[in-house]
Each structure stands twice: as structure tokens, then as C-alpha cells.
């Protein structure tokens, strides 16, 4: 794998990890399981695609096909994360509340009815716009840091090659 992939995956993991202390700060509730869940602040989807796009822009330049492809793909992912997936989450909230309402109605009936209770649907699927922006900013920062680290390591390896040639 190349460094862009490593940086994007690291950014996703970092965003997922940051969800735990941010949730704790907001709700005073320690939930390490958030690392493996979707939704929440910051968006790991946005962080990953922003890291890759930023890294490509700095390494290859803006007028390249690589950058254009990464930018368009990233915008689609971020739009989906805050648009369609968020709407699905809101619909899930309504379905879950209808289930609660139906349970109340069932309890008031005199007829006995055995029904296996369905599992509640996951309600935190998508992101609020600020969560997507937070992930994008995090991703851009990781992309810049990754580029700077790559740039410095490239300078060091060029220096080492030049200094090794003097001895031969």
C-alpha cells in the first residue's frame, strides 16, 4: 500500500478514536464501543477522504487526474454521510418510536397476543453537517502532516544517497 492509503486509514482510526472522548465531554458517559459504530463527531468518512485528497493535492498537485478523482469521490462520500445516511437515521428514530407506541397500544388491549419483540434499529447512522466538517478538517490536517513527514523523509533519503556516493 502507498502512504496515501496508510494516512487515510490512520485518519479514519483517529476520528473513530476521538469519538469516545468527545462523547464523554458532551454526555459525561464513557462509551468505548463508539470506536466501532457509525455516526458521531467527527465523521471518519470525511476524515479519510479529506486526508487522501489533501495528501494527493500536496504530493501531485491540483491539476492532476488523481486529485480530481479523489476530490469528487470525497465530496460524494461527505454528501452521503450527512445527507442520505442522516435521513435514514432520522427515519429509524421514527420507526423505533412507532414500535414503542405500538407496545403501549398492545398493553391496553384485553386480547393476549404473543409477539417476539423486534430489535431496535440503529439510530445513529449518519452525520450532522458540523460532524462532517469536523471530520474534513481533521482529515486535511492529517493529510498536511503526512505530506510534511513524507517530504522530510524524502529529503533525508536523498541526502543519504548523495553522502553515500562520496564514499565510493
UniProtKB/TrEMBL annotation:
InterPro entries: DUF212 (IPR003832). The chain crosses the membrane at residues 132-150. It comes from the Bacteria. It holds the Pfam family DUF212. Keywords: Membrane, Transmembrane, Transmembrane helix. PANTHER family: ACID PHOSPHATASE/VANADIUM-DEPENDENT HALOPEROXIDASE-RELATED PROTEIN, ACID PHOSPHATASE_VANADIUM-DEPENDENT HALOPEROXIDASE-RELATED PROTEIN. This is Divergent PAP2 family protein. It comes from Neobacillus driksii. The lineage of its organism: Bacteria, Bacillati, Bacillota, Bacilli, Bacillales.
Amino acid at each position: 500500500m502507498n502512504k496515501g492509503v496508510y494516512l487515510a486509514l490512520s485518519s479514519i482510526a483517529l476520528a473513530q478514536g476521538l469519538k469516545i472522548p468527545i462523547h464523554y465531554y458532551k454526555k459525561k458517559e464513557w462509551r468505548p464501543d463508539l470506536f466501532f459504530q457509525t455516526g458521531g463527531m467527527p465523521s471518519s468518512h470525511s476524515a479519510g477522504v479529506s486526508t487522501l485528497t489533501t495528501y494527493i493535492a500536496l504530493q501531485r498537485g491540483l491539476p492532476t487526474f488523481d486529485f480530481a478523482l479523489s476530490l469528487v469521490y470525497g465530496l460524494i462520500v461527505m454528501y452521503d454521510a450527512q445527507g442520505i445516511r442522516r435521513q435514514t437515521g432520522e427515519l429509524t428514530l421514527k420507526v423505533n418510536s412507532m414500535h414503542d407506541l405500538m407496545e403501549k397500544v398492545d398493553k391496553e388491549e384485553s386480547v393476549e397476543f404473543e409477539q417476539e419483540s423486534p430489535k431496535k434499529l440503529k439510530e445513529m447512522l449518519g452525520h450532522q453537517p458540523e460532524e462532517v466538517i469536523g471530520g474534513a478538517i481533521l482529515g486535511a490536517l492529517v493529510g498536511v502532516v503526512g505530506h510534511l513527514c513524507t517530504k522530510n523523509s524524502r529529503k533525508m533519503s536523498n541526502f543519504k544517497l548523495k553522502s553515500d556516493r562520496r564514499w565510493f
